[in-house]
Task: inverse folding
């Protein structure tokens, strides 16, 4: 009864775009089919965070006439009028002349948005199309059946801290579907299983970590309401890839963030602290004067690009958005790729369902559409862009301009291999601390559930402490990890679901599993 | 047996995002908060599911009923996903703006319709959460019971189904095991059970299930008794909790004067007692809008008057002086006549004594009948109840039965003239109470009633010294009671398990990672707690920050903070605790906070009344000794 034709794991822009497009196509074809989105956050958008510059053209195709909709998301959307790139030295800020900024990095005319709000809005549109959306359900395992994706299994509910079932125990339910779309984001638990089963890219996937705060500025502030700035340089050392941003978000709010390539070498780099140091730069401090931080969060961004793209389809299975690694680092944007890849998947699945066949062959139209829509060709053009910055922004900038002419593949290694035991920043603590940062994310987990962050081998943590000085204690923005003597203490309740620990643990000793649905951060406007 | 679960959609006050605050006005933007199923209703649903499972009369069903806007469907879908069989949404613009009185009336009409049309006369029970987190009044279920003339079994903890339905509940004198003698009956739940989870497949199925939607006409409601017109109270003003804690820390360098200052402050009693001092009102010959005396319900157990009744008599004296009327004390019970003189000494001019063997134990029906008969006969203009467990059961029923508005948990009462839509109300009672989990304050006035009723939490007002020279009259009332008014069989009353747990303690001694190691936590904190136990009245418990619990200093039961226990003790010691927001959110409502830390910049000092920057190894033994020394003085 009520068989599911297409099950989409993850209610972010990629998953929702898939759902909307597929449902539109099915409706056009006069077919009754169940399209179901399952999201682990309590509400759509609660686990969605991004920088926020968005090329809205993809919406014209997904939701024709969207700009006329009477919804605060649309009516209050900030259109960027001023777009500047600065290079920061320790004390000064230098405006980079616009003629020197690559065209791909021009943002005038784009929108500055909150991804949390975009996801919530897309959810409303999806429901209007007839998509079923269920939030607060977390999937923990991909169900495979002889090489085909059969569906997912949800996480068990109601276990005690030691794993013992409690009175209200509910065994994880299985959900089967003809096609399962994984839109569970960067290093999603299920997409990771998919890649393990069906194969990764030529290069390993690499990531960066985005740390963000939403700040309310006093009325009459000088930043302006339709402005974005990007920064290079301070506080990053030349050998750390990354940059900062400050975006108008409407109603006197600004989004402030720092993106750091997780291939940094410093064993004690703390992104949350780097953001505070960034805020202390005289140029930034002046812009942010009198501001109050109202929300905070973090996420990882897949940056491996073209050569890191994994197998995208299997019998009954498709990867979309960040889960697949669709981010163009030349533009520092993945949002419109998330939506476009979702639309391509929606079209391909509609075609496959029309044939009554969900095999890999029937789903091959997905890759063809990605080519057609220019996503793969754009990514191919930028294929060596991120790799050029392997040794930091300074060394990478000249090479990046040449990267598309390089006839070969610049190899990458996994981020955790870059950590050097002797490389330390030795920063002095300043500004907001991690507990406060975490609190502003709204993160919450049931204290007495089994920790969803599993330490695979306690002895490896001791070794790591001796060799590297426990980098996780520093890089985790939520202060989940703490060494007490020879014991690694894991405070899973603090977890921001950013996933950096899986990427950056030098020993690859942390397994991120899913907690009970409905937990984690609560981003409303991130 | 079927069950009807009364559920409510409420704002999630457990997670208030920064952007929800309107800092200029000091109030909450309620629209920004998430809407959730009221937490206690979830436990009520779990109890109802247990009832269905354990009393499996063929075709037993659990039905969830709510009244609200169309968006409230969300919680009904949630209830179905958690195991309920059916759901009814009562929605109509005409229901809007209802207070507890008008809500209870409408829900009772809905229940009658369910009884007639869905259950077709088959037996059922009504289950509800004791209170909602937004209003926090606990009035609606009791008033539904009053409207339908049902037994109300409050403070239910668990269900036993060994021999028919038996309910364990916290009664006035102990843990009661009661058997409801009549069907239907109404149970309100306060226990925190392990609530049933939502199932994905049930969630999906629920979307296909048609919810029943009823409007005011469908439930045959009298338009004058629902929504705004049917309400007996009206919010007059919403404002910020003025006494928002801006603590300034008094620092000490030595343990002895610190201990002395803490002891002195603690023994002064709750800070709030002195805080609210309404100005005197002058009637000046004006015609007051209400007539009659000011009454206090006197709560007694085994011949012992509850302190809150004495506090209320003192407050009633002041109100009566403003209004130039008398103070009445209502005293039901069995063999309690000897208490009358002490009530007069405390301020009563008239004691209404109802002495009857059927009033030996508190049961809601005989008690509300007795008090209701007196109210209707003598019509006081104001009646005050203590917001005790008993008061929260009794006051809503008396108010509903006597057609009076009731405001729960007032922190300030004041006589004043009010002009509303061109009409001047003279010498009415302005009732101020916290709402939305204490995040806003609301001033409320009664309307459409002859009596203004309010409950007041114990300790809010101070009892004046008794004046043994005061005299008064005793009016005896013979209540019209019969054995038919006894609708529960109290099978046993066991002494309540000793109050345990850090959440209930009057004094909490908490330690954090600053203590360094478990042995130091053990040695210093247990020693200090023992010394305080001997010196200050009240139960002392140990607490800990999350980090200290993770480090194994003490078990998780003692963790204070966002993911542990929320405590509200009279006295809180934060020792070696830095004051992360997650910890502070669990203890910031403590009355007196003492912080000891070696880091002078620790954030905990921002929340402390008394502070000491010191090395814990030397400061704690000195403090322990200072408290121990206080034992003899």
Result:
């Amino acid at each position: 009864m009520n068989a599911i034709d297409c099950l989409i794991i993850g209610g972010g822009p990629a998953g929702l775009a898939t759902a909307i497009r597929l449902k539109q196509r099915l409706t056009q074809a006069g077919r009754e089919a169940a399209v179901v989105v399952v999201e682990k956050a309590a509400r759509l958008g609660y686990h969605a965070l991004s920088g926020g510059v968005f090329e809205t053209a993809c919406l014209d195709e997904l939701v024709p006439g969207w700009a006329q909709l009477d919804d605060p998301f649309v009516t209050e959307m900030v259109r960027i009028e001023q777009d500047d790139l600065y290079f920061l030295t320790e004390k000064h800020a230098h405006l980079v002349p616009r003629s020197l900024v690559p065209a791909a990095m021009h943002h005038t005319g784009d929108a500055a948005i909150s991804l949390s709000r975009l996801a919530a809005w897309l959810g409303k549109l999806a429901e209007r199309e007839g998509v079923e959306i269920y939030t607060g359900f977390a999937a923990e395992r991909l169900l495979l059946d002889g090489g085909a994706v059969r569906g997912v299994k949800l996480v068990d509910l109601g276990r005690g801290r030691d794993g013992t079932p409690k009175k209200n125990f509910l065994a994880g339910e299985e959900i089967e579907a003809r096609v399962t779309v994984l839109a569970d984001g960067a290093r999603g638990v299920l997409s990771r299983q998919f890649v393990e089963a069906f194969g990764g890219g030529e290069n390993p996937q690499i990531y960066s970590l985005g740390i963000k705060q939403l700040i309310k500025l006093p009325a009459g502030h000088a930043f302006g309401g339709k402005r974005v700035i990007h920064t290079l340089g301070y506080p990053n050392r030349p050998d750390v890839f990354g940059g900062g941003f400050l975006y108008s978000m409407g109603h006197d709010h600004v989004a402030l963030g720092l993106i750091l390539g997780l291939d940094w070498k410093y064993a004690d780099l703390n992104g949350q602290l780097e953001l505070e140091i960034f805020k202390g730069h005289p140029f930034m401090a002046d812009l942010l004067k009198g501001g109050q931080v109202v929300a905070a969060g973090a996420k990882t961004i897949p940056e491996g690009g073209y050569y890191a793209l994994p197998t995208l389809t299997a019998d009954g299975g498709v990867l979309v958005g960040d889960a697949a690694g669709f981010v163009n680092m030349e533009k520092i944007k993945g949002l419109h790729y998330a939506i476009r890849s979702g639309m391509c998947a929606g079209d391909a699945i509609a075609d496959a369902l029309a044939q009554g066949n969900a095999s890999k062959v029937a789903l091959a139209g997905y890759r063809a559409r990605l080519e057609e829509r220019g996503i793969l060709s754009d990514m191919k053009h930028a294929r060596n862009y991120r790799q050029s910055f392997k040794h930091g922004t300074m060394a990478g900038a000249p090479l990046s301009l040449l990267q598309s002419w390089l006839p070969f593949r610049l190899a990458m290694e996994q981020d955790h291999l870059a950590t050097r035991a002797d490389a330390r920043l030795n920063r002095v603590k300043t500004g907001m601390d991690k507990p406060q940062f975490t609190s502003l994310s709204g993160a919450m987990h049931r204290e007495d559930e089994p920790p969803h962050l599993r330490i695979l081998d306690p002895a490896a943590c001791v070794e790591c402490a001796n060799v590297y000085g426990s980098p996780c204690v520093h890089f985790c923005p939520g202060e989940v990890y703490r060494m007490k003597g020879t014991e690694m203490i894991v405070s899973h309740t603090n977890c921001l679901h950013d996933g950096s620990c899986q990427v950056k643990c030098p020993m690859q000793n942390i397994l991120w599993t899913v907690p009970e649905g409905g937990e984690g951060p609560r981003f409303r406007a991130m | 047996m079927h069950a009807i679960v009364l559920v409510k959609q409420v704002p999630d006050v457990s997670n208030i995002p920064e952007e929800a605050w309107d800092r200029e006005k000091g109030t909450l933007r309620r629209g920004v908060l998430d809407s959730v199923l009221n937490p206690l209703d979830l436990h009520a649903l779990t109890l109802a599911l247990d009832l269905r499972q354990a009393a499996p009369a063929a075709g037993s069903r659990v039905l969830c009923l709510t009244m609200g806007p169309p968006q409230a469907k969300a919680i009904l879908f949630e209830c179905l996903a958690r195991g309920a069989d059916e759901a009814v949404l009562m929605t109509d613009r005409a229901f809007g703006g209802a207070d507890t009185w008008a809500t209870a009336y409408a829900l009772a009409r809905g229940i009658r319709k369910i009884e007639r049309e869905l259950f077709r006369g088959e037996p059922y029970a009504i289950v509800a959460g004791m209170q909602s987190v937004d209003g926090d009044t606990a009035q609606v279920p009791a008033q539904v019971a009053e409207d339908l003339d049902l037994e109300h079994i409050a403070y239910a903890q668990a269900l036993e189904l060994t021999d028919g339905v038996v309910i364990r509940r916290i009664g006035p004198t102990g843990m009661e095991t009661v058997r409801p003698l009549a069907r239907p009956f109404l149970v309100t739940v306060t226990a925190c059970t392990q609530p049933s989870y939502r199932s994905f497949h049930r969630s999906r199925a629920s979307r296909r299930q048609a919810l029943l939607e009823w409007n005011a006409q469908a439930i045959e409601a009298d338009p004058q008794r629902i929504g705004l017109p049917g309400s007996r109270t009206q919010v007059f003003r919403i404002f910020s909790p003025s006494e928002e804690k801006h603590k300034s820390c008094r620092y000490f360098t030595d343990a002895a004067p610190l201990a002395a200052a803490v002891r002195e402050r603690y023994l002064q009693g709750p800070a709030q007692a002195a805080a609210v001092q309404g100005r005197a009102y002058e009637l000046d010959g004006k015609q007051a809008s209400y007539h009659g005396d000011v009454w206090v319900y006197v709560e007694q157990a085994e011949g012992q008057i509850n302190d809150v009744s004495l506090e209320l008599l003192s407050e009633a004296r002041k109100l009566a002086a403003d209004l130039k009327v008398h103070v009445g004390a209502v005293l039901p019970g069995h063999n309690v006549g000897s208490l009358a003189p002490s009530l007069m000494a405390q301020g009563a001019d008239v004691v209404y004594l109802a002495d009857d063997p059927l009033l030996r134990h508190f049961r809601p029906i005989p008690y509300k009948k007795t008090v209701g008969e007196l109210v209707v006969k003598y019509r006081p203009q104001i009646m005050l109840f203590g917001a005790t467990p008993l008061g929260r059961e009794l006051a809503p029923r008396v108010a509903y039965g006597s057609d009076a508005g009731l405001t729960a948990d007032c922190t300030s009462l004041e006589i004043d003239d009010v002009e509303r839509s061109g009409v001047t109300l003279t010498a009415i009672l302005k009732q101020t109470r916290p709402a939305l989990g204490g995040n806003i304050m609301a001033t409320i006035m009664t309307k459409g009633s002859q009596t203004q009723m309010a409950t007041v939490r114990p300790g809010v007002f101070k009892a004046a010294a008794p004046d043994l020279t005061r005299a008064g009259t005793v009016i005896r009332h013979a209540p019209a009671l019969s054995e038919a008014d006894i609708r529960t069989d109290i099978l046993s009353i066991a002494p309540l398990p000793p109050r345990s747990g850090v959440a209930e303690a009057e004094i909490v001694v908490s330690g954090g990672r600053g203590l360094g190691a478990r042995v130091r936590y053990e040695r210093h904190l247990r020693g200090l707690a023992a010394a305080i136990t001997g010196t200050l009245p009240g139960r002392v418990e140990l607490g800990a920050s999350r980090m200290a619990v993770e480090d194994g200093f003490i078990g998780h039961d003692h963790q204070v903070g966002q993911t542990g226990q929320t405590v509200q003790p009279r006295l809180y010691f934060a020792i070696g605790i830095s004051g992360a927001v997650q910890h502070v959110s669990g203890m910031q409502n403590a009355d007196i906070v003492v912080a000891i830390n070696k880091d002078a910049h620790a954030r905990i000092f921002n929340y402390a009344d008394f502070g000491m920057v010191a090395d814990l190894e030397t400061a704690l033994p000195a403090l322990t000794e200072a408290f121990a020394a206080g034992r003899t003085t």
In short: Chain A has four domains: 4-65+117-200+309-383, 77-112+205-302, 387-414, 418-512. Chain A has a mean pLDDT of 93. Chain A touches chain B at residues 2, 36, 38, 42-43, 132, 134, 136-137, 154, 157-158, 166-168, 170, 173, 175, 216, 292-295, 433, 435-436, 438-440, 442, 444-445, 447-448, 482, 484, 489, 491, 493, 522, 524-525 (CB under 8 Å).
